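Internal ticket #5521
Category: modeling
Description: The requester needs a full-assembly model to guide mutagenesis choices. All entity lines are attached below as received. Residue total reported by intake: 918.
Assigned to: D.W.
Attached entities:
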Amino acid sequence: MAGTQSPERAPAIELTDITKRFPGVLANDRVSLTVRHGEVHCLLGENGAGKSTLISILSGMLRPDSGSIRVDGAEVSIRSPRDALRLGIGTVYQHSTLIPALTVLENLMLGARSRLKLDRDGARERLAEMAAMLGIDVDPEARTGDLALGRQQQVEIISALWRGSRVLVLDEPTSMLTPQGVEELQKVLRRLKERGTAVVFITHKLHEALAVGDRVSILRRGRLAGALSSEQVASSSAEDLRATIVRLMFEEETAEVAGAAELTTDLTAVEEERSVPAAEGDVFLELKSVSARGAGTEPGIEEVSLRVRTGEIVGVAGMDGNGQRALAETIAGQRRVTSGTVELFGVAVNRLSVSARQKLGLRYLTDDRLGEGIVRNLGVSLNMFLKRIGEPPFWRWGRIDRRRINAEASGLVKAFDIRTPGLEARAGTLSGGNVQKLLLARELSFDPKVVVFHKPTYGLDLKTTEHVRAVIRDLVGKGAAVVVISTDLDELIELCGRIAVLSRGRLAGIVDNGPHAVSQVGSLMIGTMEAA
Amino acid sequence: MALETEATAGTSLEAGARAAEPARLARSWRAVVRSLAPVILALIAGGLLLLVLGQNPVRFYVAVWQGGVESGGWQNSAVLMAPLLLIALGLIIVFRAGIWNLGYDGQYLLGAALVAGFGPSILQTWPAPLAYAVLFLVAGAAGTLWTLVPAVLKAWYETNEIITTLMMSFIGVGIANILVKGPFQDPTVNIPQTRTIPFSKLLPNLSGTRVHVGVLLALGAVVVVHYLLTRTSFGLRLQVLGANPRTARHVGISVRRVIVTSFVWSGFLIGVAAAVDVLGLWAYVRANWNPGYGDTVIPFVFLARLNPLAVVPFVAFYAVLSTGGDLAAQQANLPTDFLLVLVALILLFMTVIEYLGRRRDLGQSYLTPGLKEALRRPLVRRRPAR
């Protein structure tokens, strides 16, 4: 990576013995960290390792119980996000902080120093300049709520750097990006490094840390489990680094974590391993040149044709915001078909409602787990039965049978290993991984036959990811037909027999999974992008 | 226990029940505290205000009690409760679904005008039970009809129902006045008002009191609506829609049907409130008359956290305050507007308590997110987030 010759760059931020305690959890335990100018410093760790707490402290959202923070050598106390910005620390959070109803430009102007009159032209110039610097193409007048998640993140990066930040903190920035998106991000980071910006890059994906980071620090259960200096990163072979980091991240757990082994194997190895034979069973789900409208600037789908057989997993690859949501919602019945037909088991279901399709055995696992999947204020058990409201035996003559629901729910909690304080606990209090398990439990109980998974493992830690993938394989083993929509190509390669590529709402092509699938899918994604 | 805030808090699994019990008690206790504190604080602040005005607050409140409860005053209070309760129920149903039916004035007055207009002749000719049933249905249907336009507009075109219900309300109030001054005008008097229903034809009173059976009807409706909202699939659908419309659509709830159904029930109950009020108390309707029950009852609906059972004590409180307060204010030489000051103080303290409660633990309250934000916004301060 760049900049190995220069001995030690000037430290931008020095954290010393940061400790932060929450009721029942020691989130950060004497963590010390130095982030230097012109370097990307990766923080690696599983969900719950304390990464988010650490950056919340850096960005002024939380204050440490003890420990000191130095910025450019001077000791500071960061009391609020405003302090952090004043010190030149810009943060991009994992979840969007943009105001959906405002345009890109308006959102950016929120971060600007306020004057009585809004400096729209000045802001437009600044945006153009920053977009050019970062190699990003954004429409200043688009409503941010209409942008795809990946695009929103780019706006957030611009927003974080808007006031000339010298330190950029990125919290899991790649969790919603495609391979190309990650590449773009790396380019952006390279440019930032050249300008001397210090970058803190939080991730739980090992290969990203290696690809992006000059330095890697590993957090584990709130402690700093280890750190790799820039020399180590630059000089060691990739395999050694992987082995070291996996050991640091999981230590004694290594053997238990199935995914850790897979992390160390190369993508090519995976490719050779899996050449899934084309399925021959009955067609459970078929789209016949289906079109549906988009919402806002999020595109719809046009003339998508797809056939999914029993016992088969068909992947849908594509960059974020290329019609994935429209596709999923059209199949689920949440969006109206404008032309073409959706067929389940050979019968057209265009006119059937969401619940009617559910009764036929169709399930849709949404990607927007908190915003669409659950009702935060309802209990875990009720959330599991939201799709069966009014159905016997859980409702009889319209009257709820709570005992029955709770009995069934407690079985599901065990089967899907949902960590919850109780069945009545509000679903909003669960962690992201457990919300996903709750949704899995809801969708996969009661004999699902056709399941659409939309970003099933996005933002989940390694163990949960493996758990989810195992559940999907198991489901297919039982004869279900499965569609996995994901921006994570590795995931599709691992799971799917065939991979369809969605680009600007159209199917660019369908690739049989095999030795060359990655490059084929990649070229389909890129090819249409160039053509467009 | 009556103040259980959420429908979800109502049950327990055998295994988890023991552990959950103290937490549930604590939660219900907090809900009670949060609901009562604003009322108590408002009474204290109102007392201070009385001191400033040179009145003895203790004497004033005692007078309220005497007028509103003692020596038969409770009967007047109870009679006042009947329409208030029915309107509160009508509002709870839609508010739970996150729908703002603010057209209660139009819905109520249309119902009232029709009952007062047709009542005298129908009650003279038909047997009483049939006449009552028809008049209740007519009033309910008028309320329903007046919610249908906003309901359909919202369900199919996502039109903002706050605006449409308010506009429909203006139209409704206007038509009610036209009816009273025109076809229903009592030809024997010069004042614009309907004919009067003879005293003997009004709703029968409970033996030995001036409390009419409409009060019992309202209390019965409270129980029915509470059951409907907390125990049935309809109630849960309403709740899911109110909490998160996207989830409602995702899980296959027919959002349109739920919107229309809740609107229809809301309008029906408000119309029935008018019938109970006119047939039980007023016996006629004057032009430009508007008791403004809806505006009065809204704060209490929220204090009761949209719980039909919990709204009863609050409405009773207001009824006593209102009946007793009129007298007390006259005695103290205060304008009766002072009662409105008390109600407004309750709202103010409710906002403050809501905000403090939110800072202590998220999500306890059962206000819909939009209203929560509206209450919070003026007071917002940065809260550390994890």
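Resolution: model delivered.
Comment from assignee: Chain B touches chain A through 36 residues (CB under 8 Å).
Ticket closed.
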